[in-house]
């Protein structure tokens, strides 16, 4: 009897393993289950506040570059929600409330966003919301969500030390933050936040796609800065020294195709590589992760304690390779000692189209893309716990907390 | 404020003694002015050093003064970066300590970790290459050929023993060895089966069928082409008799094939045609350039030529641009070469291909079988083919030539190249290209890229060549060479160009002075 059972089990196992051979993709199941293909429509309702255009449209009109830089997710989220079936015009039946503000649309001439006015903008918007609608005061923002894709999220500063000093904007303490920044045990990552990928232009990546049979001949690929001489002349601050360590240890290694060039064949080269390095920069996240996933290159993430996008839905441990910053000098040993079966499995997971789709913000929205994953994440947080509803007149947030400069009206 | 005062005073500084600062109204004691001067000088010094270094080094100074180096495993390399201070985990007054008590990631300055020997390890490099190989194999398996079928490649090669046989045959052999499918190599040899050919193809590692053909290879290109056709038909007969199953391609021994060619021919159903690049070289590069310049001029003036105006003429199927259906054939244009083409093997002129070379066609081997069930009607019965009727191209095997499948994205891809380069009919070469026993006399070539070597001191041996040809003569009699080998430091420079007993120099290239032409049969 037991022999028969074991024989059956063996047969099943063999058939399962042989079925995996020559299979192009594999199903992705994270800790939240196989949720990448879930449809959020019907699971939640979102009410979009009507804010004056000085918070959104006017900023865009002033600088249309906001539509193509890596923080463009906030704008596209707004456009998506306006025409999405989850939108409701009746705020009483809404599960989530969204205020369309573009805090990252104040750009320098070179295109970098200045976060200095963003806290004031947020504050002014929240004051508007709380005085014109009763829904903010009901929960002090606990059923509201905001998209803050800047370097350190709602800490609104590009320098990490200053960002930590400021902490998350006090008014946003109870709201859900949809942000790109994610690092464990960090002030700027709230427990309930949803991490999203940075914006990478989907059409541009589409035009550079190569057919999948082109053989991958580059072992490790990276293009970017190793030292930031403008902002970090002494060295050691930028990327916590990790990028510089990559350069110093592997510039002589022919397996590592790393340089600071800006080649026109950047996307094509990624499709010819097996591993793509995604080290931290001034912030731990970067669009490189999105590009690596879209082009099927296994991301090598060098950022301690980073929280990757949709971490509960996507099993990043099985897809990418995580290397501690202190292990960077042994990167070549680490990468060559990964068994080939594991590498092939990671490539199969990356080849899964739902994986690639979940990292993109296509216009118009498509099922399974990052917009839907955000909604899925919001839906997973429902139903709201009863304790978020405050009694009449009860105040939890401190409206005067924060640096003096933030309290100025915007 | 103090600094601005110092700055202003620095600009106004003329006299040490009369130090005046507009903000400091009470300049009383000389001690105060000395202090001011000291600060000034220190400030200037710091400015100059910062200018040199390129950054504000004051932070470095503070580190060295304040924090104590901690003993973690930090090793930084000297040449590029100055020694970096250790991470500020125990340094003072930064807001980093405010929150991250449970975080092990510290904000601030970190050292750059560099291992003592930052160079690749050969074992790891090999491992990486194995990984790359495995990944590419998997890619090919999953995404590679569209149909996924892996049919045997049956290669038909007519050959015969001559100077360049080893060169050409080895090239084809290596291409076939790299093919990722099963290969059956049918080598048909003119003049009968010979040991030389057999020894060359024995190294291939693929299954070979060595067939002998009674006639000898003639000396004119036209006759040669006719004989090759007969030899190929003989090989096809072998395919029919042995009932070999696969895709038959014609690998002439001097052609060059790309690996994509073998992937592409897997897609043929019955009879396919590909584009062949024609390299009608004569080995005389100048003439080729002149010819191509003439051709290009002619093409620019005239119109309606079937050939493309690119410099590589291509022979193969011509397709309708929109529907990708076969509408005709691109044929090699022989007009520019009229009267200037090679007739005999050793002519120094362009060697032209036939109208349609056999190598551009592939066929399903079942087409040749007698009793193949699903053989289409437009295929002639191969067993009934009469070769005396004049078979020029494989299209004679078909009843209806319009049913040919164009391969290689309808002839747009050139996946193989046709070339004919042969030595003179009477050129001698060492059998098997092995010189055994080693030659006793070596004579330097007249034009060598190596630097001048002073001549050897004269020896007492009898057979010495006179120092007539230039000054680069190295006479190394055999026994003395072995004695002197230990004492000699120079690298041996053997440029043996001739057999010991051969009186006349023979050139084994086609660059022959057009003095004599030999018309006898090839021995």
Automatic annotation (TrEMBL), chain A:
Q: Name one GO biological process term.
A: plant-type secondary cell wall biogenesis
InterPro entries under this entry?
A: Exostosin (IPR004263), Exostosin_GT47 (IPR040911)
Gene that this polypeptide is encoded by: LOC108863503
Write out the annotated subcellular location: Golgi apparatus membrane
Please give the organism.
Raphanus sativus (Radish)
Q: Which domain of life is it from?
A: Eukaryota
The membrane topology noted for this protein in its Swiss-Prot or TrEMBL record is:
Single-pass type II membrane protein
| UniProt protein name | Probable beta-1,4-xylosyltransferase IRX10
Domain (Exostosin GT47) spans 43-338
Q: Name one Pfam family in it.
A: Exostosin_GT47
User: Which residues constitute the signal peptide according to the record?
Assistant: 1-19
Q: Which UniProt keywords apply?
A: Glycosyltransferase, Golgi apparatus, Signal, Signal-anchor, Transferase, Transmembrane
TrEMBL record, chain B:
Presence of the UniProt keyword Thylakoid in the record:
no
Class in the EC hierarchy, top level:
transferase
List the biased-composition ranges (Pro residues): 79-88
Spell out the Basic residues composition-biased ranges.
487-501
What keywords appear on the UniProt entry? Cell wall biogenesis/degradation, Glycoprotein, Glycosyltransferase, Golgi apparatus, Membrane, Signal-anchor, Transferase, Transmembrane, Transmembrane helix
In which broad location class does this protein mainly occur, judging by the first location in its UniProt entry?
Golgi
Q: Which residues cross the membrane?
A: 34-55
This entry's Enzyme Commission designation comes to 2.4.-.-
Signal peptide positions (record): none
Q: Name one GO cellular component term.
A: Golgi membrane
Give GO terms: molecular function aspect only: galactosylgalactosylxylosylprotein 3-beta-glucuronosyltransferase activity; xylosyltransferase activity
Could you tell me the Gene Ontology terms of the biological process aspect for this record?
cell wall organization; glucuronoxylan biosynthetic process; plant-type secondary cell wall biogenesis
Compartments, as annotated in UniProt: Golgi apparatus membrane
Q: Does the keyword Transmembrane apply?
A: yes
Membrane topology is: Single-pass type II membrane protein
Per UniProt, the ranges with Polar residues bias are: 506-515
Enumerate the residue ranges of region (Disordered).
Answer: 77-96, 296-315, 447-523
Q: Which Pfam families match?
A: Glyco_transf_43
The record's section on InterPro entries has: Glyco_trans_43, Nucleotide-diphossugar_trans
Annotated PANTHER family: BETA-1,4-XYLOSYLTRANSFERASE IRX14 (PTHR10896:SF63), GALACTOSYLGALACTOSYLXYLOSYLPROTEIN 3-BETA-GLUCURONOSYLTRANSFERASE BETA-1,3-GLUCURONYLTRANSFERASE (PTHR10896)
Regarding protein family, the annotation reads:
Belongs to the glycosyltransferase 43 family.
- Write out the function statement from the record: Involved in the synthesis of glucuronoxylan hemicellulose in secondary cell walls.
According to UniProt, the name of this protein is Glycosyltransferases
Taxonomy of origin reads: Eukaryota, Viridiplantae, Streptophyta, Embryophyta, Tracheophyta
Q: Which gene encodes it?
A: LOC108843032
